[in-house]
UniProtKB/TrEMBL annotation:
This is HTH-type transcriptional regulator CbbR. Keywords: DNA-binding, Transcription, Transcription regulation. Signal peptide: none annotated. Belongs to the LysR transcriptional regulatory family. It comes from Nitrobacter winogradskyi (strain ATCC 25391 / DSM 10237 / CIP 104748 / NCIMB 11846 / Nb-255). Pfam families: HTH_1, LysR_substrate. NodD regulates the expression of the nodABCFE genes which encode other nodulation proteins. NodD is also a negative regulator of its own expression. Binds flavonoids as inducers.
């Protein structure tokens, strides 16, 4: 018992980072430490506990059974410390404190605007923003590492609370010289023979496009996968294929006519952006205030706009 009383929260934080990233160097980068400092802390932790915490498989680090059990308790301790911080923040009021957000990469096109508006009236709030993919977002929510997450349609999980706060129209995009760009009405069936540039298979945008085509009995041809919306836009602009992207990502390209949206029947696919947190998580006063802000202010501040010179949203009843 005695040796465990000398464990520090910092040791557990470093241990958590190593387990999650399976690598001392990546953990050090995430914590802004040197790799030798992380290695030394983990050696000291193993000496204090008296059992090995890691197995080494090539360059990867795997927790032992003891390591997994320690990590389970470290995760619970971290969540309790965040709850304690939230409780103390409530005594200071909602105008100060910290707000930890994790957002999907596409949401990062509009979240800085919303964060800036929120911070304008909450000047003493410190916001930490992490941009990630859906898999990592769900892992972070499960571990209660963040106050709130911003993402597309979350899975039906009884342990999550999700609230839609902003429309997310998905549009078919093409270069201006594409033959379909001159058409005012395009049946979805005509896109069955078109090549599409898409995100990776677990992308929410790609799932939505594939489901939409499937529901209408049209085959969706993904000929190339890209890791980001920016890469897809460049590939479409170069004429490698069509794309389906959130209108939030297209404002600059549409304004400069580097890309156009096609008037395809049954498009746009209007999805929602959700603000999500773990069920039962104690939200700080700052997090509650930001949640209320999103509900009231996100639509007027961050709804996507499209230049009237393009095949705009007016035909779909979405023009701002």
């Amino acid at each position: 018992m005695h040796q465990f009383m000398h464990l520090t929260l910092r040791q557990l934080q470093i241990f958590d980072a190593v387990v999650r990233r399976r690598n001392f160097t990546r953990a050090a980068d995430a914590l802004h430490l040197t790799q030798p400092a992380v290695s030394m802390q983990m050696r000291q932790l193993e000496e204090q506990i008296g059992v090995p915490l890691f197995d080494y498989v090539g360059k990867q680090i795997q927790p032992t059974d003891a390591g997994r059990e320690l990590h389970r308790h470290a995760t619970l301790i971290g969540a309790k410390m965040r709850d304690l911080t939230s409780a103390m923040e409530e005594f200071r009021g909602v105008h100060r404190g910290e707000l930890d957000l994790i957002v999907a990469s596409t949401a990062n096109y509009f979240m800085p605007k919303l964060i800036a508006a929120f911070c304008a009236s909450h000047a003493k709030v410190q916001v930490r923003l992490q941009v990630s993919n859906q898999t990592h977002i769900l892992e972070s929510l499960s571990a209660s590492n963040q106050d709130l997450a911003i993402m597309g349609q979350p899975p039906e999980d009884a342990e999550l609370v999700a609230r839609g706060f902003l429309d997310n129209p998905l549009m078919v995009i093409a270069p201006p010289a594409h033959p379909l760009a001159r058409r005012r009405k395009i049946p979805l069936t005509e896109l069955g023979c078109q090549p599409f540039i898409t995100r990776e298979p677990d992308s929410g945008t790609r799932h939505a496009a594939e489901r939409h085509f499937s529901r209408h009995g049209v085959e969706f041809h993904s000929v190339m996968e890209m890791s980001s919306s920016e890469a897809i836009k460049q590939a479409v602009e170069a004429g490698l294929g069509l794309g389906v992207l959130s209108l939030h990502t297209l404002e600059l390209e549409l304004a400069t006519r580097r890309l156009v949206t096609l008037r395809v029947e049954s498009f746009p696919i209007v999805r929602q952006w959700f603000v999500v947190h773990r069920k039962g998580k104690r939200l700080s006063a700052v997090a509650q205030s930001f949640l209320a802000f999103l509900t009231k202010q996100a639509r007027p501040l961050a709804s996507p706009k499209q230049s009237p010179s393009h095949s705009g949203l007016q035909a779909f009843g979405l023009q701002q």
